[in-house]
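ARCHIVE CARD
CATEGORY: sequence design from structure
SOURCE FIELD: tokenized fold
FIELD CONTENT:
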């Protein structure tokens, strides 16, 4: 079974930074893409960022572009989300996700939750004014 273990969430002030980590472990699999989504209470899960494992290509939602940076560590099979200049509207549960079949390599499908195969438990990020 594949497990995605997240860490790094917390309560911060607007303008602060946080670094989220997500380590994939378990049965052998082919990592095509890892990404981050977020979901605020009562709202749909929305795309935040993704990284293609083979070459490190990155993709960002317009709302976080220039503030968030997604990186990977191939050896550790870990993805990171460095969040800077945090805003109250960034408050949400953040979920790490993994695509093992390459479905996110087609078009802009990396923005779609149903193209991913495994999900972490979520880590809460709260940004106060």
């Amino acid at each position: 079974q594949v497990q995605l273990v997240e860490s790094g969430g917390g309560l911060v002030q607007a303008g602060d930074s946080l670094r989220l980590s997500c380590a994939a472990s378990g049965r052998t699999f082919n990592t095509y893409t890892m990404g981050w989504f977020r979901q605020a209470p009562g709202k749909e899960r929305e795309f935040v960022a993704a990284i293609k494992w083979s070459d490190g290509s990155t993709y960002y939602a317009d709302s976080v572009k220039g503030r968030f940076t997604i990186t990977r560590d191939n050896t550790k099979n870990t993805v990171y989300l460095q969040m800077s200049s945090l805003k109250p509207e960034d408050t949400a549960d953040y979920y790490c996700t993994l695509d093992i079949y390459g479905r996110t390599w087609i078009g802009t499908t990396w923005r779609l939750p149903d193209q991913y195969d495994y999900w972490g438990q979520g880590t809460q990020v709260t940004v106060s004014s």
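CARD ANNOTATION: The CA atoms of residues 70 and 95 lie 13 Å apart. The mean pLDDT is 95.
SHELF: design records, drawer C
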